[in-house]
């Protein structure tokens, strides 16, 4: 299945594709042994292999490598009483069909990808299933929100852990403006972003967030002890227990993570895991989105792969736990 101008294609995964990506071990049961079918799975994992969104935002390459780095680490995790894995299905991946484009065509390609992601979500994922989208740029939040808005027939509350608000102007689609586009289109009721870095968000972005009555915190306030991020996370969960919520986590929010916008400063992986585990306890989750992992060598693939595997299994294991 290809996108409108054949810049992208969807590759569905069979059980054989899964078997190629993990190593069975006698006496053990791994998640790769237990992955369920599309018809009965509660959680559906979709990979996106592209970096055109970050490039259109004047960012770096590598986001096309996040999904495959994740998949082998995830499938080789243990299936046990805390997470069996039979309620999970890896549906496949969206990948690019071009080597490169001239910069003037980047935003057009992102718009084509937007439409294609919506088509895949609409045709492959059932109403009662929760999509977990791995890899690619943060541009893919926009089609995820659009799909959820159409499915729920109501606006979403979107929560994001991110060093950048991704609320740049309406200037052509890229990874820096999915939420401003979604808000403009009437798909978002409230947008909340935790941990913005003061030096990496322009005054215009801050003014636009305030203008549109969104909520945000600065990472520097967590450093100074003015605020506590776990308290903010807990407060959000308590205040949105009945809302339709899209959960976003940009990997560049995590310190020293190989991402499209690498930073040596940020939240710890354990805080990111706490964020995902707590958000998973919301009653009405529309999706989980984990973009911007951008490994460029074997060590970075291991870091990104294990990080994403922890976050995905945290979400699945915690969803349906204690409600608030």
Summarize the model shown.
The chain is α/β, with parallel strands linked by helices and 324 residues long.
What does this protein look like?
A nine-stranded mixed beta sheet has the order 1-3-2-4-9-8-5-6-7, with helices on both faces. The longest helix is centred in the C-terminal third of the chain and has 21 residues, at about 300-320. By secondary structure, the chain is an alpha/beta fold. The protein has helices spanning about 15-20, 30-35, 50-55, 65-75, 105-125, 140-150, 180-185, 205-210, 220-225, 230-240, 270-280, 300-320, and strands at about 10, 45-50, 90-95, 130-135, 155-160, 190-195, 215-220, 245-250, 285-290. The protein has twelve helices and nine strands. Helix 11 links the parallel strand 8 (about 245-250) and strand 9. It has one domain: Ureohydrolase domain (Arginase, Chain A, 3-Layer(aba) Sandwich), CATH 3.40.800. Helix 5 (about 105-125) runs parallel beside helix 6 (about 140-150).
